[in-house]
Amino acid sequence: MSHDCIFCSIIDGAIPCYTVYETDETLAFLDANPLEPGHALVIPKTHHERLGDLPTELAARVWETVSELGPQIEFAVGADSMTIGMNDGAAAGQEVPHVHVHLVPREQGDGAGPIHAAFPGQQDVPDEELAELAESIRS
Ligand code: 5GP
Ligand code: ZN
Predict the structure, then answer these.
(1) Each residue of 112-133: b (16+ CB within 10 Å) or e?
(2) Cα(126) to centroid of ligand 1, in Å?
(3) Judging by DSSP bridges, how do beta strands 26-30 and 40-44 pair with one another?
(4) Is the predicted pLDDT of residue 2 greater than 80, yes or no?
(5) In CATH, what is the architecture of 6-112?
(6) What residue spans define the domains of the chain?
(7) pLDDT in tens, 100-112
(8) 31 close to ligand 1 (CB < 6 Angstrom)
(9) How far is CA 119 from CA 92, 101, 109, 113, 123, in A?
(10) What whole-number distance in Å separates Cα of residue 57 and Cα of residue 62?
């Protein structure tokens, strides 16, 4: 629990939210500034800033909630699809430093595009570079 964390205050009940799903270890609620109707956030009930800070078991519980809830939101709002993602770290756009997964309902032709649209300057990477990167990540 972090006293200056908005999401910890939501878990505490000090800040109200529209809960859509809850387990012993996770909470899901509607985003206050939805990108689309039904945009929800899934969070662990303990304070961890980044995905890499989460114990593996808790990360699994968060993902269980995401996979249970995603289709339920899609059905409830009559969406075609979902974009599911995280802004993990400040450079990626994370504003609330408490791990959260965004679930955003999507409609055919809504114009938002795939996650790839966030990276317009994509370049071809030679195979040797891919091999080096894979080696460096594995080790
Ligand atoms: P981030 O940029 O950190 O990935 O996204 C944080 C999200 O939290 C934003 O989409 C923002 O609208 C949402 N948010 C911030 N404060 C509150 C709040 O007090 N209540 C709710 N329900 N959502 C919030
Ligand atoms: Zn927190």
Answers:
(1) eeeeeeeeeeeeeeeeeeeeee
(2) 38
(3) antiparallel
(4) no
(5) 2-Layer Sandwich (3.30)
(6) 6-112
(7) 999 999 999 999 9
(8) yes
(9) 11, 20, 20, 11, 10
(10) 9
Adjacency order of strands within the sheet including 19-22: 19-22, 26-30, 40-44, 101-106, 81-85
* Nearest bound ligand to the CA of residue 8: 2
As beta bridge partners, residue 82 has 105
Q: Which atom of ligand 1 is nearest to the CA of 29?
A: 22
Give the CA-trace dihedral at 68, 70, 13, 59, to 10 degrees: 60
Instruction: Give the per-residue pLDDT at 9.
Output: 97
Q: Looking at residue 34, what DSSP letter applies?
A: -
Atom of ligand 1 nearest to the CA of 96: 3
Ligand nearest to the CA of 4: 2
Residue 76: predicted pLDDT: 98
Active site residues: 100
| DSSP code string of 14-30 | SS---EEEE-SSEEEEE
